[in-house]
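@channel sequence for tomorrow's demo:
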Amino acid sequence: MEPTPRRTAARPAGGVLGKREQTKAANRDEIRAAAVDAFTELGFGATTVRDIVRRTSLASGTFYNYYADKDAILLELFAEHVGEADRRMAEARAVATTPREAVELGAAAYFRLLMERADLLAMFRRNAGTLRAYAAGDLVAHIVESLREDLDRLLADAGSPDLDTELLAAGVIGAGMDIVMRFAERGGDDPEPAIAVIRALLVDGILGGRPTG
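structure tokens (generated this afternoon):
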């Protein structure tokens, strides 16, 4: 399933939203916030569209002007989170000089993002099982490809370009996502133990024995 980009109101030439566009943007934000609250309190599976609408000031029919169902909201929220995670991890890896450093810096950047969004972290904790299915799909494909490109560059620079970087990137992201979901399920507030596991398992375990720094 491909990520669903967040639909935003079109801005006029001056960059200022008109009253109608402001209302639509406010309604969408209100629905999204209500959905996060409902998914966190009730769990995604038990939440109905009515549960979401009840947490807003909107009429029940207004919901369907913005979303087809609750799945569309969760997909949009997760796709946005994955997109922001991809951007931040890529920026962090840009200063890395070795594959090991790239993996560690990327992991630390992701956990910083996660800790900034207490609302999403709480929702992830309540719905980790559901989100595992999203994490296993096409939503994270770009993250894997982005890491692969960095690993290609850094392994070549280190004179060790013989690893299958596509499989390596998929393994790093796959294992990392599983650690993140378990971290969320356990209700952790300190990401350092999770980062230490990623460091030991992926950085030292996979890359530690290679002459890559």
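heads up for whoever presents: The CA atoms of residues 78 and 115 lie 15 Å apart.
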